[in-house]
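Supplementary Methods S3. Input chains for the assembly prediction are listed below.
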Amino acid sequence: MKTIIEPFRIKSVEPIRVTTKEERGTLIQNAGYNLFNLHSDDVMIDLLTDSGTSAMSAAQWSGIMQGDESYAGSPSFYRFERAVKDLMPFKHVIPTHQGRAAEKILFTIAAGSGTKVPSNTHFDTTRANVEMAGAEPVDLVIAEGKQPESEHPFKGNMDLEALDTLLTAERERIPIVMLTITNNTGGGQPVSMENMRGVREICSRHKVPLFFDACRFAENAYLIKTREPGYAETSVPEIVREIFSLADGMTMSAKKDAFVNIGGWLALNDDDWAEQARNMLILTEGFPTYGGLAGRDLEAIAIGLQEIVDEDYLRYRMASMQYLGNALTQMGVPIVKPVGGHAVYIDARSLLPHIPPLSYPGQSLAVALYEEGGIRACEIGTVMFGKQADGSEKAAPLDLVRLAVPRRVYTQSHVDYVIECVENLVARKDELPGYRIEWQPRFLRHFTARFTQER
Ligand code: F0G
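Predicted structure tokens for the full assembly:
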């Protein structure tokens, strides 16, 4: 069969409020042309993030009712721990309310003032938590990972030579090495098993612990299965176990590849670090058998972890990303290639060459997508990264717009609608205006800044 169906049917639905173009024009203007300021019931297709936006299954919802809310020793914790260890056999599993809480605990313990933490590419919260600990985040993704046009199948790979050189020169300053799977900031690009083994070998040789930021581990595993020679016949759970056998620990946002709306964990083998982590957990999150979560959340994660490694689901997930990416490519819209695991990234700077980077082509495209069809996407470019520490402004390396697809939420006709909206926009792309920032906060300006149109 050529048609790959959604391998689920719908039992419970949420209405989408249909708005007109005129209404949306007013709504986005009142929001200061910032999509984060919109009320989400004014959005028709919400592609702002794939995080915490999954649809849970009937099994997960029934798991919610099984949640045991005991303060200590809840059976829900042990079911959660067993489900994590089944795929990621680390000695200690410490639940947190989401991924960044696990990062905060890890870097407070592992990194300190004057240290450096290399990764392929740190995600924003990881970078911020490394910096909060007084350490310096270092991104060492391969050169192809920064080239939107490159069709390299594993653009999330770490530059092994650069990692080895850094560790040879500055081993005493590097307490831990991270690897983000898939590499979200680089376009949702996977890391190959071969590269992971290379990173492991270098870390072992220099005696540095290796941790995975593993939010989208199942998508990465499926892309290994379909893109890396030798894995076609290996099951996804086996690939997942092989991946985690290479690490000393992991941080996880269960809001991605565990199909839940809140949750995360820190898992690791080192007893001493685990004890320190649990001490911090009690201060900031909660008792070690619930962390920052309710027992019912732990049940939903345990079930979600079994569902996410289902190959029928992953085949459909990757096919639907490909479908969107191929349609955009066919109409000549430049995207980050090849299509990654959870999102399609439009290269707005190339699509809108009449808008210079400091007039925010990504913002312009994101606003236009909302006005045209009520679609909410996320600028990942000069608005997000352009403000320098000294307050000056510089073009980001790329101006992208991320269409992140929530898991099991939208059907093919929703995707067709998105494609048609982009098509309409492309026809009048030369008319799209640049933007100027009218007001911005000191940090993380993309969340709250207000804009005006340049024309
Ligand atoms: N690491 C990666 C690679 C992520 O993509 C995220 C979140 C986190 C860590 C933090 O996890 O949100 O549970 O605290 N990414 C979301 C996104 C927010 O939209 O890409 P969290």
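The two ends are 50 Å apart (CA to CA). The mean pLDDT is 96.
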